[in-house]
Every structure is written in C-alpha cells, then in structure tokens.
Amino acid sequence: SHIPDEKPCGPGFSPVLVLQNNATTVGRRLRIIPESSLRECNHCAQRKNCIGVEFLNSKCMLYGKYGRRAATFGSIVLSKYCVKKDKVCASTFHFEALEKKLLVGFDLKSVPANKVQECLVVCLNAPDKLGFECESLMFYQTKKKCVLNSEDRFDRPHLFVDGHDEDVIYMDTNCAGSECRAPLTTKYIAEERRVLNNVQGMAIKVDSLEKCQSFCDESLSTSVCFFS
C-alpha cells in the first residue's frame, strides 16, 4: 500500500490521522524530531506540507507529498487526510486501516463515496446525521462505495475475514464512543493477575499506569487496559 497525496487542510477542514498497516512506501522526508512516544509525535497534523509520519526508535519522521521512498521496516506509519469537519475526537490516531479485509454481517448504511476522505467524514458524522455510532467502515475503491458498520473487528473477530477479490479498505475508528456523555464518567476497576484470552489489541510502551489509562481514555479501539 502507499500513502495518499493530500492537499493542506483549509478552513472548515480538520486533519485525520490513519494508522496504515503494512505500508510499503512513504513520501519525501521533511524533518526528524526526537519524541519519546507516538502520542507525542503529533507535529504533522498542523503542518501544511506534511502528509504523514513514521515513528521508530523515539524518532518522529515527517514526510511530504513529493517523492517516494520505502517505509522503514518496523516503523509505525500514519497518513494524514483532510476531512470536511470542524472538529474530530482527540486521539493519537483516528482510524486504523487494513487493506483487503471485510467485517461480515454488521453493515448499517451504504453510501456513495468517490474517495476515502468522504467515507471517513460520513463515519465521523454518523451519530449526529444518521442516528447511530459508526464503529468501523469499509471503502470499496473501485465501486466508489462506503459501508458503515455497527461493530468492529475487535468485537467480532470471527467475522473479520479476507477479501481477496475485493478492492476494499477496512478501517476501525477510535472516535466511536470516544467521550462519556453526561451524566456518565469513565471509571477504572483494578483486577490484578487477570487477563482476557482470545482478544485483539495493541501493545504500547508506557512507564506508568496513568499513561496506560490515558491511552484508553482516547479510545484506541479498546475498552480494557492491561499494565505490567
């Protein structure tokens, strides 16, 4: 897969960061900034000439639109899209993309979409405009179609399947349920020496329980946190 070309975000548009699984190419490197974590590697969102970032070994590498080079093996790659929305949820990244993957049986809405940015904004606006929470989406590039799902691959791993013959990109969203609306608040209950089996998740290096909880608060596609 490759990182898309993107124009700078203008008035009424917001930057959305997408975690790219198995990215093979990125753009021309603009700058390297030392940062201790991916969460602090947030410089790209506000830079007009930046379309994405690589994070590896405490280095935040910003890249631009022109030129192509191979992605560094083992790096975390985020691409920046500009979507027509005044505000998006606070999160290290807003979507996680997996190409040629499908979630079967939980589609709630199918809408036309010429490009992936249109699909992203429909998902983000679903609670207000469609009356439901978009947990994940599937963008069919050839068919120009956007499918919104009521569940994601973490909820239904047995129904998350390969779409070998489909020109499709599956994305989880970190913005679904990202805030507890009044009168609800977030509360954590500590349970030592307990683990959940047969679940998918992401391992992030942190040095305190508080930082682990902070990542969970930002809804990184999870509702349970482990710290060891």
UniProtKB/TrEMBL annotation:
One biological process term in Gene Ontology: anatomical structure morphogenesis
Domain of life from the UniProt record: Eukaryota
One matching Pfam family: PAN_1
Apple domain ranges (all copies): 89-175
Name the UniProt record assigns to this protein: Apple domain-containing protein
UniProt organism field: Pristionchus entomophagus
